[in-house]
Amino acid sequence: MSKEQPLSAAAGGTFTIGGDLTVNRLGYGAMRITGQGIWGPPADKAGAIATLRRAVQLDVNLIDTADSYGPGVSESLIAEALHPYPSGLVIATKGGFERPGPEQWTHNAGPTHLREALEGSLKRLRLERIDVYQLHCPDNAVSFEASVEALAKLREQGKIRHVGLSNVTREHIERARKIVPIVSVQNRYSFADRESDYIVDYCQKNNIAFLPWAPLGPDQKAHDAIKKVAKNLQKTPLQVALAWLLKRSKVILPIPGTSSVKHVEENIAAASLELPQGAYDELSAISHSPVSLRD
Description:
Strand 3 (28-29), helix 1 and strand 4 form a beta-alpha-beta unit. The chain is 38% helix and 16% strand. The protein has one domain (14-216, 249-259): NADP-dependent oxidoreductase domain (TIM Barrel), CATH 3.20.20. The protein is of the alpha/beta class. The longest helix is centred in the middle third of the chain and has 15 residues, at 111-125. It is built from 10 helices and 11 strands.
């Protein structure tokens, strides 16, 4: 990035979610502002709040969170740091998990739980309506249609503006779209973890936002490869990984997370990194056999 170019998430271009929410493509994921094990308050609350505020100062206007991060901690910190929210800030949150303890996640996408989870998110975020509310993960103990129908009803009631999905297959997306418009999909995806390639293509064809998580890939082989490319470009591996995602498809909205002001600045610098085609192709050639979607 040249010295003349300001540090801004806007450098990565924009995408319009659901036809009416235009955001800068490089967003921020708020899972890491919680305590160890994604449980309880952060060790450095002031640092977490400063990170959220710095992200918005650098033109991030898409923040992704979930009621299960903390649980409740991430949403509460977002409100403490940023409310009253600046015009145009889109907060996407999720429901469908319960948290019995650190590093423990249990499915609960039943309609009653989703309604209660949404009400909790509204209260913590100090909102009357969630812009993008995502089903965090399909629950095998509950009909997928029942989960989506519950969110559709909440949308009809004006408590959700748009519905999204997370950790899903193409079949899930197609089934959900028969019930309610789906504006976003959030799956694990990176240059080296391409199980969701066909979902990215589907989202691009249907103008659905795709929010990838775990952008650095699954193992050391991938990390070694991207370190090499990053060294040649004099960038960090994560900056290169984010630039690869931005180049992969115009519907991809990366949401890297951190609890550090320094790292959020480094991540946002990736918005202005135009990855050379050779480097893009080299990283694209690194792919792993499909592995099952994780929570």
